[in-house]
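Appendix C reproduces, verbatim, an entry submitted by the partner laboratory led by Prof. M.T., so that reviewers can inspect both the input and the predicted structure.
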Amino acid sequence: MAMVSEAKVNGGEAEAPTELPPALAEKPAGLPPGKYSLVGWDMDTTGRRLIDEICQIAAYTPKQQYSQYIMPYGDLNPGARRRHNVRVVTVGRYRMLKDTNTHKILKTKSEISALTDFLDWLEKEKGDGSVILIYHEPRRLSPTMLLEALTRYKLLDRFKSIVAGFADSYALAADKCKATVKSVSLRVLARVLLDADSLAVDSALDRAAAAYRIVEHLAQGEQQEAGAGGEGTLRDMVETARAWARPVHTELAALASLKLLLERQNTFRPVFAPLLRSARPERKRVTQLRRLLADAGLLYADLSTAWTDNKLAGLEKQMAALAVTAKEEDIKELIEIFDCHFDPAKEPKGPKPRTPRNRGTSAGEAGEGEGEGSGSTSESQNSSPHNSPTKTNNDVSAGDSSRQPEAVAAN
């Protein structure tokens, strides 16, 4: 999954190359022709690491809706609480989920019970075909976290018999609306395409409905351009969603690749774990540097052996693998960090924080992110006590840091 790109360089210099979000990095392969039912879908989670739990799952069709809150074992991290407007409270001896806007206690189920009910609901909707789940998100976190949860409860085979794939309306809108809008966040698209001046995005059900309606609107626009006169709207919507869908097996492959990436990242814990206790700009820089190493396929043992054999020259030789994806300053910084780490005579050094972006840009991007993903943007402060050994205690997007110790997945 792609790392968050840097913003413009200060001082009028050339703009750094912008990395595409994962939703746009590659065009979806699509699904073969067949009979499909379309369902808008989204979910809220306690954070955006692979071990984080679902706290609401929702689905939408024009005729039926499904929404269920889930009582997580762990607490929501601060970003998730702000975004979803829910929090875990303790009343007497019991933990409950509370809406922070209405101050009401929400009806909840366990994660496995809610997922089973969700599959029951989808099975009724699919009829004699298969389901395409439509969601709106630039980072493709939700499918990954849903598949991980289904695997945890041994519900994946049943899910694959019902759902054919995931269609991301973010990628569709970015392609169809690139000439008219600069941002394809849910709020912007709701205002431009759906004539909704304000859209509540704190609820998974609201986002699921908006994602469905965006695909419906864009499919109607294509139909009108073709001169079809508004007939066969559902058929054209299905064809549009099918062409922009990713099969379930594609997302499972992405999940497997992510777990391998996180395992490689975790090998660098002796170097980066102390640095993750620093201030947020330094933590963000740490995760960027660690991701560069993992993407290049490097392991801590490789760098340790290289330094033992050839000292600084050995590190430089190993870091040459980063030349394709990393900047020269990143490579120099990594060499310095590892040289100081392996050499007991030198004081350990941390990463140098990048020049902060202007406040307006950061606020705008943060606001847009709030409306698009299902995971929060802050570090999780509470891990779930029921975590399975197969879980990986890492950020799904691999772009966020955590103060918690990281557990290597036992695959």
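Confidence is low (pLDDT under 50) at residues 1-17, 226-231, 359-394, 396-411. Additional entries are available on request from the coordinating office.
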